[in-house]
Specification:
It contains two helices and five strands; from the N terminus they run E-H-H-E-E-E-E. It is α+β, with helices and mostly antiparallel strands. Strands 1-5-4-3-2 form a five-stranded mixed beta sheet. The longest helix has 13 residues, at 20-32.
């Protein structure tokens, strides 16, 4: 059973501001999280309990995984130079 994907307001805004080619790649990566919320290459963000990140080129998708409710909540989509500020 796949996870449901929820984009926070900030993530929607970040996705809308991306260049189309990069935005398509990011959207595809987010869609794949529904079937595998912890894909190979994902990293746990150390200071949090539920937060992970995946790379799409120079961009980072920051998200939280809720296994009990089978939900992935995408928090931010940022360039790597701005992702952790």
């Amino acid at each position: 059973m796949p996870y449901t994907i929820a984009l926070e307001t900030a993530a929607r805004r970040d996705l809308a501001n991306l260049e189309r080619s990069i935005g398509d790649r990011v959207s595809d990566a987010i869609d794949r999280l529904a079937h595998d919320p912890r894909p190979p290459g994902c990293k746990k963000i150390v200071a949090t309990k539920l937060r992970y990140r995946i790379r799409v080129g120079s961009y980072r998708i920051i998200y939280e995984v809720y296994d009990a409710s089978r939900q992935v909540s995408v928090k931010l989509i940022r360039h790597r130079s701005e992702a952790y500020r």
